[in-house]
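Entry for the shared binder. Reason: the reviewer on the internal report wants the predicted structure included alongside the sequence.
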Amino acid sequence: MSPPRQADPPAADFEPCIAAAQSKAEIQSLLSGARRGDRQSIGALLTQYRNYLMLLATTQIQRRLQPRVSPSDVVQETMLRAHRHFGQFHGHSERELLGWLREILVSSLARFVEQHLLAAKRDIRREVSMDRLGADLEQSTHFAASIVSGCQTPQAQAQNREEAVALADLLAQLPEHYREVLVLRNIQGLSFEEVAGRLDRSIGATRMLWLRGIEKLRSAYRREKQHGS
């Protein structure tokens, strides 16, 4: 007789953002207020991208750098710097804002790595390929579409947030082991054999974990859809 299945562990390590996801129109309204210098709008706007930044930082920080460099610390520093210097952002769209936030994240992560590893003589930014990782996330829209069964109309898709941000918000709702296997397999593009090695599992167990993770992500999407309807 097989042992009873254990309950899913909590996803506390990822520190998911508790703010409700906003529509594209609401984001644009916050962005307009932030560009006018409204500090409350700036704070509310930046909070919407915490999961996105956390996903980038968690994925980019190599295992050999943990636990010396904490993704949550890097993201917190990024958020503080973005809030403090928001007047330097001159874009008008969410996509431009994401690019600006990635630049700050690269700088913050490089500084953390330099501080903790005493590698001041090395150009850390060449290793921290955050722009490439951001592009990988944006190119993962086919993955997100397959998860949600491609049921949205073109009109609904036009109202969507940036797909990478929406995907990060959904992933933040999952237990850590499901999120990790999906990130390794679908965002970093590792083979099941490579993912199994990272997770110290058999290939068969890794495939089963991945399939359960897909279903968990679909369930998270359905909850979001019901909440928004």
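Summary line for the report: The radius of gyration is 18 Å.
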